[in-house]
Amino acid sequence: EGGAIIGPHVHIGKDSYIQSGAIIRPYSYLGDRVTILSGAIIGTQAFYFKKWPEGYQAWSGCGRVIIEDDVWVGSGTTIAQGVSGDTIIGAGTKIDCQVMIGHGAVIGKNCLIAAQAGVAGKTIVGDWVTIYGQAGLAQNIRIGDRATILAQSGVSRDLEGGKSYFGYPAEESRIKFRELAALRAISSKYIKDKRE
């Protein structure tokens, strides 16, 4: 559509669709059949600062954003350019609206990432991973293939693939739900004892 902003040295593959209001910054690479919805920003400058006694200095990235074939990127989503390497979105991955992907993150193939989730810089997410809304992943961690991260979970360490995780810090959901049930039972007993 008209009204999209496409920077220099951008590659856009065949049958891709970019809505008005999307911004594709220089040196980004989009594969075939990629959909970018309005307001998405591909290749924004990384949130990467060097701290000095007198303040912060922004470090420019030299990496690109590479979006492989059949990826969907929702409105208002931001994908930062890599700093020392590329930010990569694997083939078949679908990203909802208002998601943040940090610099140098690698998202695997056929992942689903729901609204308001955030993946910090240099984190590696395996294939077929599902990240529900408002989940946050810290930097420099690895998420195994086919993991599921439930809504509003906070992930601060590597997670094994093939399991479901919940809470903060994120743990296997079956364990976390048992812990919550035990806390509820203790709390109910305490309140009951106080009333008696």
List keywords for this structure.
26 strands, 12% helix, mainly beta, nine-stranded mixed sheet, globular
Stretches with pLDDT under 50, minimum 5 residues: none
Order of helices and strands: EEEEEEEEEEEEEEEEEEEEEEEEEEH
Strand content: 25-35%
Strand order of the largest sheet: 3-6-11-14-17-20-23-25-26
Nearest-integer average pLDDT:
93
Regarding quaternary structure, what we see is single chain
Q: In total, how many beta strands?
A: 26
The geometry reads as globular
Main pleated-sheet profile: 9 strands, mixed
Radius of gyration: 20 Å
Please tally the helical runs, counting DSSP H or I stretches of 4 or more residues.
1
- Secondary structure class reads mainly beta
The N- to C-terminal Cα distance equals 69 Å
**Share of helix among residues?**
10-25%
Briefly say what this structure is:
With 196 residues, this protein is mainly β. It has one helix spanning 173-195; strands at residues 5-6, 11-12, 17-18, 23-24, 29-30, 35-36, 41-44, 49-52, 55-58, 65-67, 72-73, 78-80, 87-89, 94-95, 100-101, 106-107, 112-113, 118-119, 124-125, 130-131, 136-137, 142-143, 148-149, 154-155, 164-166, 171-172. The mean pLDDT is 93.
Protein model, in words:
- This protein is mainly beta and 196 residues long.
- 12% of the residues lie in helices and 32% in strands.
- The protein has 1 helix and 26 strands.
- The protein has a 9-stranded mixed beta sheet with strand order 3-6-11-14-17-20-23-25-26, covered by helices on one side. It has an 8-stranded parallel beta sheet with strand order 1-4-7-12-15-18-21-24, with no helix packed on it. Strands 2-5-10-13-16-19-22 form a 7-stranded parallel beta sheet, with no helix packed on it.
- Strand 25 and strand 26 form a beta hairpin.
- The longest helix has 23 residues, at 173-195.
- The model has no long low-confidence stretch (mean pLDDT 93).
